[in-house]
Amino acid sequence: MGGIRVVARIRPQQSTEFQRDCIVSAASTDGDSSAQPTLVRIPSFKNENEIYSFQFSSVYDQDSTQQTIFDNEISPTIKHLFNGFDVTIFAYGVTGTGKTHTMRGGKTLADRGIIPRLLSSTYRRCRKMEKDSAGNTSVDITLSYYEIYNDKVFDLLEAPEKRTQTGLQLRDNGGKTVVVGLTERPCESLKEFEKIYDEANVNRSTSATKLNAHSSRSHAILCFKVTMTTGDEVRVSTASGTDSTTARTPWKLFANKEIPNSN
Description:
The protein is α+β, with helices and mostly antiparallel strands. The chain has helices at 66-74, 78-81, 99-103, 114-132, 190-201, 251-254, and strands at residues 7-9, 25-27, 39-43, 51-55, 58-60, 87-91, 137-149, 152-155, 170-173, 176-179, 185-186, 206-207, 215-216, 219-230, 233-243, 259-260. Strands 6, 7, 8, 11, 14 and 15 form a 6-stranded mixed sheet that branches.
């Protein structure tokens, strides 16, 4: 099983932009306003009567909610995760477009982003699987979280003062890239995850930009590994959520479905 969906989300205007016209819009290919939009339309700066259209798997406009995006785009992938397939969610865009809001979100239930929603749904499915199997199946989840900053890999579950200047090393393992020495931490509940996640995000490399006073200047990759054990049968899959800057895309890691490794 394999498949890639490329989804665009148009963020609302910020307070400093209210005096400007909103020129980016979402539309469907056949003009049906009730259909899920798949086009982003932007007028030409040289000719206002010319409209550029860019097609995606789905497009979400300024009024789209965190819940809608999760239900439509992320929730359907959870069954594949429990069937042993890896899942990768990659947020990409220039500074200030809302990548971190979409991936991490806020503290309220409505503002909660893709990553905590995905973890919450995964934990619920874990508990249901264990209950339905009458205890014959156990499911364990471990987390790893790292950033790529200035072409170096740093463990976000480790305090910054413990980092080496060279960062963690990469190693090829049968065509897949392994991060050597990366911490994997067991995580048994959403509450425990949120505590670990919040503490780790403090360790991210940030700096001010013209578009964002506290912009993350690194690519951050959160991975959680799901290990399902039934008797002698063990099935392992990994879900990865990436909040990426546009400064330089870490193709070396993403080209081969990276597998974090604590060895």
